[in-house]
C-alpha cells in the first residue's frame, strides 16, 4: 500500500493572498506616518477637581473646593443657569468656600465651570 504525502506548506493562491494583505497593511501604516495623519490627534485633558455644593441658612447656593491635584491651576470659577451667569476670579485652594448669592429654589439648575491656567474649561459641579 502506498501512502500519498503532500509536502507543500501553503497553496500558491493562499500565498499570493497573504502577500497582498501584508503589503496593503504595510502601505497603510507607512502612509499614516509619511502624510502626517497621526500628528493631528489631540489629547484631551481631564482635570482633577472636586467641588461640593450646598446651601446656607438663607437658602443660597454655596460651593466648597473639596479636593483635587489641579486646584491651584484654577483661574476662574463661573456659575450659570438658563438666564444669568457670574464669574469669580482668584487664587483657589482646597477648602475655599463661597456663597453665590443665588437662591436654590429660584435659580433652577446651576452649573459650575472652572477655567484653568492652560485655557481649558471643565464643568466641575451642577445643582439641580
From TrEMBL:
Superkingdom, taxonomy of origin: Archaea
Domain Archaeal Type IV pilin N-terminal span(s) in chain numbering: 8-75
Keyword Transmembrane annotated: yes
Keywords tagged on the record: Membrane, Transmembrane, Transmembrane helix
Entry's transmembrane regions: 12-38
Protein's UniProt keywords contain Zinc: no
A family per Pfam: Pilin_N
NCBIfam families (alphabetical): arch_flag_Nterm
Protein name in UniProt: Archaeal Type IV pilin N-terminal domain-containing protein
Amino acid at each position: 500500500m502506498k501512502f500519498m504525502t503532500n509536502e507543500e506548506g501553503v497553496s500558491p493562491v493562499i500565498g499570493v493572498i497573504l502577500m497582498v494583505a501584508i503589503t496593503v497593511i504595510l502601505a497603510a501604516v507607512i502612509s499614516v506616518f509619511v502624510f502626517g495623519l497621526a500628528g493631528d490627534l489631540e489629547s484631551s485633558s481631564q482635570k482633577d477637581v472636586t467641588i461640593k455644593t450646598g446651601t446656607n441658612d438663607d437658602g443660597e447656593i454655596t460651593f466648597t473646593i473639596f479636593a483635587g491635584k489641579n486646584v491651584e491651576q484654577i483661574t476662574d470659577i463661573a456659575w450659570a443657569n438658563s438666564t444669568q451667569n457670574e464669574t469669580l476670579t482668584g487664587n483657589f485652594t482646597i477648602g475655599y468656600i463661597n456663597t453665590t448669592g443665588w437662591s436654590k429654589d429660584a435659580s433652577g439648575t446651576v452649573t459650575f465651570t472652572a477655567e484653568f491656567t492652560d485655557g481649558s474649561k471643565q464643568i466641575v459641579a451642577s445643582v439641580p
